Structure formats: structure tokens, C-alpha cells
Amino acid sequence: MIETHEPVTRRFAPPSAREQAQGRGEGSRIAQAWHILATIPDPEVPVVSIVELGIVRGVMTTSAGLAVVLTPTYSGCPATDLIERAVRDALREAGFCDVRIDYRLSPAWTTDWLAPEARVRLREFGIAPPGARARIDVTGISPLRRARAAVPCPRCGSADTSLLSQFGSTACKAQYRCRSCLEPFDYFKPH
Amino acid sequence: MNEPLFEYLLRQGDTDLVLAQRLGEWVGHGPVLEEDIALANVGLDLLGQARLWLGYAGEVEARIGGRGRSEDELAFLRDAPAFRNLQLAEQPNGDYAATTARQFYYDHAHLLLLQGLARSRDERVAAIAAKAAKEVQYHVERSSDWVVRLGDGTDESRARMQRAIDDLWPYTGEMFEADAVDGVLAGAGFVPDHRALREPWVAAITAVLEEATLVVPPGTFMHGARGRGGRQGVHTEHLGHLLTEMQFLQRAYRGAQW
Fold this sequence. Notes:
Number of strands of chain B: 0
Strand content of chain A: 15-25%
Order of helices and strands of chain A: HHEEHEHEEEE
Radius of gyration of chain A: 19 Å
Oligomer: heterodimer
Structural class of chain A: alpha/beta
Structural class of chain B: mainly alpha
Number of helices of chain B: 10
């Protein structure tokens, strides 16, 4: 039986009473796997789980065991191997012995997949969450520079901020500076 | 179609790989901390993209027959004449203006190319390009910002930026050439016609150079023209030196892992 869950439209929910009553049915095993994956923090941004980040695109059972579909954030993200290992370790600990990891490139990961609650936690962590909806149609990106939207300071909320660098501590973040509270901060770039 | 596709994937993968290696040379030497980090991140994006292109190249090579090489074998165990990167990518870092100009020229062409490749009839090519294009839009913004900052800066920074723009200009022509490999693939809808990218590229870089108070070089001489460029395996003296450093470990300790 093949079953996929799309975390975009269907966020993780604990197993229903019916699923629990079924005991160890396929559905509950998949729900259990989602539950475990939802506890794995992103190595670079530990206040957000890999499910909330939107990089877990599917969990399914196969004849050989469990298959997890991941979509890497950036092509060169150095955390990719670490995340794969964390997924294997966590699932093995929960009794999933044969786990296959598949990588899916298309559709490309986008910050639009970030869970709403993750945006709140990012701000609390001091990282300004991605603002404007990322442009998905890459054929429409202009090679000329785009007008920049104001990025509010995650600490004091001031809109009086300026870009320091398009690249911060990781490729997915830019560095900004708040002119009101004078604090530097990271901005999770729309992608 | 597999033979030209393999060749084309090497060209794209090698250009990204070699430029990533050049950017990596800046780590620990950036003029300011933010730029040190930014160059490493741009390099990392390009390295990730190189892995996707070369990984696919190895799979296509296996379709042609025999054993397809892994991305590591392709990166570390080929000599300079087997590399298919643009000559622009292998040019030395020079001063910060030279690094910026090289990146600026490539970023704008890279984005235009990826936008075309994102419409490829080959699904894998389209998927890699669509992902990479999202990353490269930030490269374009960053290098363009620096061209403006240095060009419209002090007398010294302006002079250096103009010199770098002039010096590297003859290496830009190769990005808009199309040889037999490109022709076959473009005809099949796998890749865009590189020659058609030149006009939007010139428009894009001209707008930035004007904002930077710099002059678009008038020269028409181009290195690597008429099918004798980096994409055909003809390189400047700089590539061999770059490879000796990049490949040393795998040459000395074949298959080493950590």
C-alpha cells in the first residue's frame, strides 16, 4: 500500500481514534512516522522542525519498509546529510528498521511551505520570517534587481531596517540591521 | 541525445564547480566578515548545483554504455583538458573588483540560462534549473549591488572596478556561443539557444553598469570563440593550478572519505 501525506495541505495531526483502534495498521504507522519526524529540529534553525520547514514531502510504506521523501532547501545546503542521518536515527529508534530516503527536486522547496506557527517561532528566536510570497515561476524572475520590501526588526518591530548582506550565517538567510534598536538580525529570505 | 546531453551537463557542472572552488579560495580572506560569509555561501550554492549536474551527467554516461562515473570521480579524477567549464570561471580572484566582475558577468548569464533550462523537455534538467534559478537570483542581486557600490564609490574603487570589467570582458563571449552540442540539444528543446541570451544579458548588465557610473566595454574580441573555448576543453593556464589544489587529496589518497 502506498500512501502519501502532503504537509502543505495537511499538517501533522496525531493519529485519530479510528487509527488508534486499528492498532498497528499502515495508516497509524505512517502517522507515527510523521509524529517522529515532527520532533526532528532543523540543524541550522533548531526552533523549527523539518516538517514545519516543509522539507518532508511524503511518507509512505513500501514492500521493503518505509520511504521518506525529502526536498532539500538549497542545492548546497550542508545540513542535508545531517538531516538524512537524523531521520534514519529517529525512525530506527522507533522501530522502523528499513527506511529509504528519496530526494525530490521538483517542485523546488519554497519558504511558502513554512508552517504559520514556525514563522512565529522564528521571530521569537530573533530571525525575521520570510515576508512576501516567494515567486515560484522562476522563468519570470528579472535579471535586474528587485525592489526590496521592508523587513521589520524581529526584536523591536521597527520597519526602519537596512540590508547588510544578502547572505547571513547560512545561504537561506540575509543579514539586516535595525536602525531603531541598533541590533543586527537574520532574515529568512523568501525563496 | 545522450552523448550531447552528457557533454552539456559537464559544461554546466564544471563551470559551477570551478567557480565554487575560486570563491572558496576567499574563505578567511574576505575584506569584511559579511563578504567572507557571502562568498562562501554563493560558492556553496554553486557547489550544490555542480553536484546535481555532475550527478546527472554520471547517470547519462551510464545510459551511453559502460559504467557511469560518480560526481566525485568526475570532479576529482579528470585532468584539465577534460574539463568543460567556461574560461571565465577559472580566471583568478585578483582584487575584489576582479572577483566581483567575474561573478557579475556570470550571475546575469547564469540566471538567464537557468530560466531557459527550467523549460527544458528533459524533466531532470528542468527540475535542477528551476531550483538553481531561485538561488541565483540572490547571486545576481549581490554581485550587482557590489558593482554599483564599487563603481559609484571612491576614485580608487571606481578605477579598479572599471579595469576589472574591461579585463574580463573578452571572456564573456563564450557564454553566448553555440556549437554542435548546443545545436542538437536546442533543436530538441532540451536547452535554450545560447546566442539568444546575449541581448537580454547585455541589457541587464548595461543597466547596472550605468547605475555604477561605469562604461560598458566596447571591445569585440572574445576568447574561446568559434568552438575553441573552455566548453570544448581549451583552457587558460589557470585551470591546471586550480585543479592541483582541488584534486590533491583524491589524487594522493584515491577514494579517501571522512
